[in-house]
Amino acid sequence: MATDYDLVIRGGTIADGSGGDLIEGDLAIAGGRIAAIGAFSGRGAEEIDAKGRIVTPGFIDVHTHYDGQCIWAEELSPSSAHGVTAAVMGNCGVGFAPCRKADHDMLINVMEGVEDIPGVVMTEGLSWDWETFPEYLDKVAAQKRDIDVAAYLPHSPLRVYAMGARGAAREAATEDDLALMRRLTADAMRAGAIGFATSRLSIHKTADGGAIPTFDADIAELEAITRGMGDVGAGTFQVVLDAFVGWDKEYRVIERVIAASGRPATFTLASGNDAPPRWRRVLEKLEATNAAGGTAHAQVMPRPIGLIAGLELTVHPFVLCPSWSRIAHLSIPEQVAAMRDPALREALLSEDFAPGHPFNALARNWRWLFPLDNPPDYAPPAHLSMEGQAAARGCTPQEVAYDRLLETEGRGLFLAALGNYENASLASAHEMLKHPYCVPGLGDGGAHYGAICDASYSTYLLTQFVKGEGPLKLDLAEAVHMLSRKAARAVGLHDRGLLAVGERADLNVIDLDGLSLHLPEVVRDLPAGGRRLHQRASGYEATVVAGEVIRRFDQSTGARPGKLIRGGGYRIN
After folding, report:
1. Which of 152, 170, 495, 501 is positioned for an S-S bond with 197, CB 3.0–4.6 A?
2. Are residues 89 and 158 in the same domain?
3. How many domains is the chain partitioned into structurally?
4. Where is the Amidohydrolase domain (predicted)?
5. What separation in angstroms does the CA of 50 have from each of 9, 95, 105, 503, 509?
């Protein structure tokens, strides 16, 4: 029988990504693009029954670190397991290009410290058959993968490539250095970078505890580099600002870079759990920037920002206690057996943490440390914190955490909810998400393999805010718009995120009623047998990239249609 289309999605409720009214009907795909929507005649070579399901654009994950994973793996999970069809990497100014051979170890040290990717994984998994950023993009373009990727030019490698040891040592850039970085940035935009990314965050450290090459770089350096984007007329500036020094000071980076380069900017925004709501002041500044003719968007995590802690992971409540070093090398069953010894218990419960990476101390913020069980609750009531349980039991928070590890045979997980959970509520996250200049982000897929698994935020936004009830409920069309068209435009991806005739056929078919998150799990599928956190979902009946079904009923089909997204400055030589 002759067919008219490659794929037809039948009878779904279509949330097209625009934020407008839902549409009941069919959707047809031909040649990787949407050929018809609504009521039409014709059959598909393949058809999917979407009756009782929602059909959405593929989601855009604007903040990932798949720079290494896209080299050594074909599946960009967890993101692709949560409806994501395009991921943006190179965020926070860390990555692997440009880079001379002599600087490989230095960049591995930076990425290991900032993004918690074990050095041995990168040493084993990276081919390093590139030097310049355009060469790296060509390598990415040649690889097979399930979803599309786009890449920022990262500041740390750029600085070291241009300045050598002076760049790594954070010396001030000379006029010649600035001119070179500007030229390299323009070259990267012409090769297809979607922008330039940096970090100013003080807790971003190298694996050996030092400051990363970009920390405290002069704003004039950022102005000079981003003028390279202005020279080409393309690219977005992405930055992690150091809110610890105050938003009034740090937001000036956004204002000055936009003024110097004429290019849009995007940055991470979160609320503190206890501090006054300074984030509202940032929203006012965002509004002023956009009203004045600039373009800026904030990226907001739809659930608490924090860490997952556990004995099998990078961080746990006793990892820096001096006595832990005696059993750190043991298997988890052996560690649990040792922890049952009264003498070791007394030592671990009484010892303070030794110095270490700042992330480690976050697992002892007892007021905001919660159990994470199945199904995972990312908005737990305050009384379930280690501090809350200790008050109820008349003991110390250390004892509550210790007992949980013993009761779960060392497998129990903790959620360290350290931001976006103001007064133990998601109200601040909800308010920021609804702001016209905020988009969901900060999933960090491809990084923090042993401490963070937030690439599932798209599923969480739908289950928590759309399926939920009460004052924080979001309309389905509004939520889908946030995850697709709005997110895409915030980072300069104007060719996706919308279901309309002629648009790319990137989409999801979702059983919203059955949509749920699984508990994060440890898998060992990284190079050199490295471990990482992964989180699965139920309810994604189909995910389609460029017209090909890459996932069906929450399982990979093996299809690999994913491509490199070249930015607007791309020039074919």
Report:
1. 152
2. yes
3. 2
4. 46-550
5. 6, 40, 50, 20, 7
